[in-house]
Amino acid sequence: MLFILYTTGRCNLRCRYCGGSFDDSIVPWTVRYSVDDLSRILRDGDDIAFYGGEPLLNIDFIRSVMDKFNASHYILQTNGLLLNKLDPDLVKRFDTILVSIDGPRWLTDLNRGDGVYDRVVENLRWLRRVGYEGDLVARMTVTEDSNIYRDVRHLLNLGLFNHIHWQLSFIWVEPWHDLWGWIRGSYEPGLRKLLDRWIERMKSGVVEGIAPFQGILTRILRGGVKPPCGSGVDSFTVVSDGRIIACPIAVREPWAYVGRLEEIDRERIECYKPPIGEPCLSCKYFEICGGRCLYTHVERLWGDEGMQAICEVSKFIIDLILDRMPIIERLLDKGIIAEEQLIYPKYNNTIEIMP
Ligand code: SF4
Ligand code: SF4
Asked: Which one of 4, 95, 125, 323 is most buried, by most CB atoms within 10 A?
């Protein structure tokens, strides 16, 4: 089980698609429960991820959790601006660090603020200099200004990341100017080109760390939980006020509420069932797609058109990979690549898998 811990609801950025800090009355800016209370829900073998707001605005809390518990994996999701404030000894205990960055400098700064790209890249170089050897994941938010091929290749070429992951910004922002034009004219052809290049590299035994391709392939080969991010199945979030919720962004939604840290036990958490219904349950892609995202599935903030867009891009990327399975299987059979190179993530490290 993965527990995602909010260290604060405060953020030091105000990105275009997000809006910055939570209201303190919804996600408090300080942690209002005792770290000891986490032992009510944590078991040996569990993983812990730190989340916010910007989690590194509360490094004291992170340190106190890491001093007290011995999680199987520690994960950090950060905007990267304060990474160099972490003690190098603490840095090395993280198995995965996910850093928000959207692609080239102009695009990242357009979305996140002037100078953000340079500060983040500088901090990533610092991370590697102090000896960080864990999984460094670029976490892109994809908008109408994105070009998936150009932006993913840019981040791979930086040579700093082990994996690149992206999520389509289909929730918070107003519907896009030309949603279908972008999907059909930019995103889908870009995905095809990116996948073809990925397979070409595989023919020389190299599996580039493109997380959605690897994650979907892993679900094709080995199955996986539904939804693919594990929300409400193998991932739960503890808000800074002690509420336990199924999905980290569902901080106001009654369907995601599981209980309060001070009165809950592990069994009650494990009894929670994510409310996945139609059209996913009778969809032939459900085993792989898993409903994509529990939050958008329930909330449908963009209505029917949003659902159609989500389904179209989800089916498209799954079909692309299924289409190339004979080539991938041949490369596996010949021993040019090994299945272990493809399988990702090996534990729930908070990547949502379906973009
Ligand atoms: S493709 Fe659409 S309907 Fe099918 S499982 Fe995914 S989100 Fe649900
Ligand atoms: S993919 Fe959706 S359900 Fe899963 S963590 Fe993200 S917002 Fe929540």
From this structure: 4
